[in-house]
Amino acid sequence: MAIQEHVPTHLESLAAQPIGSGDELAGRFPLTVNPNPASQAEYDAVMNDLTFGCQFTDHMAHMRWIKGEGWTDRGVIPYGPLDLTPGAAVLHYSQSVFEGIKAYRHDDGSIWTFRPTFNAARINHSARRLALPEMDREDFVASLVDYVRADSKWVPEGDGTSLYLRPFMFASEAFVGVHAAQVVDYYVIGSPSGPYFKSGFTGVAIWVVKGYHRAGPGGTGTAKAGGNYAASLMPQEVAAEKGFSQVCFLDTYEEKYLEELGGMNMFIVMADGTIRTPELSGVILEGGTRSAICRMLREQGTEVREEKIALDELVAGIRSGVVSEIFACGTAAVVTPITRLTNDDFDVELPVGEKTKAIHAELTGIQMGHRPDPYNWLYRLA
Question: Domain 204-367 adopts which CATH fold?
């Protein structure tokens, strides 16, 4: 089977650069122990009923950037409310970016994460677009290492479980004039999470929205910026009222071509085995899971085409059988089958396909340490 060459994107090239081990980076964020950690009963309640993004651990990583001084005050500190003035620039101008990444406990008790240097490259890309300061990639990864080592007991055991990590930075300067902030805070918090699909690997129904757009050409679509997600919430509410799990956005100019879901990239599996995904047009986010899937499939001999995908063509292909599967991907769910695609003009359904199942099994197998990692994507945190 011929291997299709995977040409790295700029972010992928940055992610491929070597970085020190967790032991080498550990200690950049010194620990201040939380004097009031969760009680045993509180801890047990969280770990016995794992949900996504609702409960948080005892600590958080932090550092602060001050113009003229750079990044300072690194540390892992007690988790708690932030001391933030109502004049903080982020509250007025949404100058904030974030990442999503997971820590996985393997069968031997060790704790690993997946492609953290990709997230390091992307948060700097996002920061640059939002006029926020970039950070050393070593600081980004070290903040994960030191935080997870401080709160390692919060990394759950079992397939599909993880400690979801949320690195984020925002403009904290007290100033209501419009300029790039001169004081910025960066944090990492974590939330113990269970399997995304609690009742089996089931599909989701998607509403294709017209008249609303997550981002536009020249905007912040390629940045993982909070405002992009805020812009997706109202259309998401409209979709939810209609009984749909997610919303799919189309291109800004013609409302003809697929872009992405509110927080996930999309893939189309053709009946001939080819796989298509919307191209990185400068509007959609370059997802880390999307990136991994493209490379993995190509090196396995599957043809992956990154190109414009017309909605009308997709719907016709589903009806004729030319399209056999659709799935979405992102850090939270990894891979999500799409089994229904609808708007006011059409309503089509698909099964949960074998290719989608295989991609999900392969990626989660690598992440949990159950399958080989020929790409060196795993990074040991603790």
Answer: D-amino Acid Aminotransferase; Chain A, domain 2 (3.20.10)
